[in-house]
Amino acid sequence: MVALQYLRPPQNLLSHRCSQRRLIRCGIAEPSGEPAPLGKKTKYNDGFFEKAFMTLFARKMEKFAAPLKAEQKGWFDYDYESFVDVSRRVMQGRNRMQQQEVVREVLLSMLPPGAPEQFKKLFPPTKWAAEFNAALTVPFFQWLVGPSEVVEVEVNGVKQKSGVHIKKCRYLENSGCVGMCVNMCKIPTQDFFTNEFGLPLTMTPNFEDMSCEMVYGQVPTSFQDDPVSKQPCLADICSLATPNSGNCPKWQT
């Protein structure tokens, strides 16, 4: 879920990441400063703009999601849980490639016409462009993945501040699903920046502590060579888990 800094909100909004594991304490990711107790999710105090982004993404994704019997949600009826639920319904009846394509279409629909071409002109794949996008990621991605920070990384032998350390991914923590992390966030985000924007990006989720490393300027490996392709379900927290499956079943089809 990407490039929020380049998205175009609607007019009425402009005027306002082992099969055995457990949830860990993570005081850093707690905006209020209070650590989340073991087994409980981090609490966030979402404001107007956070809810606006949740609603914007969720409503765009709703047309690809399995329908609900309940009454259609209106503007600002979405919170983070309902946003994650939309993502879960998008997965229903689709293989991993189809799920990733939905995210791509949603992202493209939220950009102004010609935005990818303009991005390539403004941000060619240079050290500066990678560092600039890393810096923008921290404030603009917080509603989606939680607190993060820019870190120094090495890309092709060059040290640069184009890494982003997500301390505890909100999307993974709330979904509890390896497949949702990979198919609805990691792979489509990498592909979107690398292929649509021309700026390589690699995301490496840590399914033990739910942190994630983003490295702008680093070309992602193929899915077959990526360690996530061998990641089993988080069977103790995922509602879609298949405990006896060697790998997460959500990308085996």
Automatic annotation (TrEMBL):
GO terms for molecular function: iron ion binding. InterPro entries: D27-like, D27-like_C. Residues 143-224 form the Beta-carotene isomerase D27-like C-terminal domain. It comes from the Eukaryota. Pfam families: D27-like_C. PANTHER family: BETA-CAROTENE ISOMERASE D27, OS08G0114100 PROTEIN. This is Beta-carotene isomerase D27-like C-terminal domain-containing protein.
